Amino acid sequence: MMTKIIGVGNYIPSKTITNLFFDQHVFLNENGILLKEDNASITEKLKKITGIEERRYADNTQVTSDLGVIAAQAAIKNAGIDPETLDYIIFAHNFGDVRFGTIQSDMVPSLAARVKHTLGIKNNFCVAYDVLFGCPGWIEGVIQANAFIKSGIAKRCLVIGGETLSRVVDIHDRDSMIYADGAGAVILEVGNDDGAGIKSHLSASYTFKEKDYLYFGKTYNNDGCPDTKFIKMDGRKIYEFALLNVPDAMKKCLDNSGYSINQLSKIIIHQANEKMDEAIVNRFYQLYDTPVPENIMPMVISKLGNSSVATIPSLLTMILNGELEQHSIQKGDVVLFASVGAGMNINSFVYQF
Questions:
Q1: Per-residue pLDDT tens digits for 222-243
Q2: Do 81 and 62 share a structural domain?
Q3: Pick from 194, 228, 244: which residue ends a domain?
Q4: Closest by CA position to 105, among listed 123, 132, 79, 142
Q5: How far apart are CA 209 and CA 225, in angstroms?
Q6: Which of 279, 276, 287 is nearest to 254 (CA)?
């Protein structure tokens, strides 16, 4: 029994935020001291490291669950299904609904419940719940949906990844320029015998030493409220952690699938940092003593930024909808999905289309 993707959808906000948006920001270090570089130099350095030129922010009237609804509606339409036939709605996020101009997160009821309500689903046995697993949350939702389907307790699941990170950033922290908003979704169901489906998966949580590489912390502005928390990260430690652990996890997942490295058509990896993702993929291929093929890893972070759980399903939708000129996925293609993020968590799955 295979779990098959039958529909995809995304929502990429229309509000484009270029690097010029940060020109007048007052950037401080963790001690509250003004950075020596001017903002033009800071943003140029960010671009060189992360590849980010632009990012998308949600409209001021929208919250994360609103973005998730739009992506879900697109996936349902793409799949051509009746939403009443869904057995599970799984919504991966990290900060809930944070309304523009506020600092309070709202997660009750769950975002999945809000999506189900807005979709107008009356089926009480369509179970709606949220997953908090850092940036790898959407992949973890897919893995959970796969378990439900393979066990026979579900036939069809909707898995959403959505986030409005622009609502939880410290404007005095230069890392705030990395984050973005968006949502993506897929419909999964019991597959037929055509060979398509999830072939293997892997998850891991590194918490002994790595728990606080990404965390909620106070603003770098010493005059700000110390009790108001914002997303913070130790970029160097995350980079080193990812390069050390993600390629090995990807290799284990691919090896478990039964496919060889030369059978891979695409690697769809969390759009966290362009240089880091490139280094991960390079090291992954080094483990097989194989050169990295051209166009193996599609990247959209330069224009969309890092929208956490939304990056992978949004990117998958763009590829399948023919929106990326140099990338496509055909029937029979083998694709490796992978992510890393707060926890610290890593996960991956191999899928044949």
A1: 887 777 888 899 989 999 999 9
A2: yes
A3: 194
A4: 132
A5: 28
A6: 287
Residues 242 and 266: their CA atoms lie apart, in Å, by: 19
CATH code for position 164: 3.40.47.10
* Pick from 57, 126, 127, 141: nearest CA to 92: 141
| Segments forming the whole domain that contains residue 232 | 198-352
Q: How many structural domains compose the chain?
A: 2
Count how many Cα atoms sit within 13 Å of the Cα of residue 2 in the half-sphere of its side chain.
18
Q: Is the same domain home to 13 and 162?
A: yes
| Two tokens, residue 53 | 């030129």
Q: Are residues 147 and 14 in the same domain?
A: yes
Contact 65, 162 (CB under 8 A): yes
pLDDT digits (tens, 9 = 90+) for 3-35: 999 999 999 999 999 998 998 888 888 888 888
| pTM attached to this predicted model | 0.94
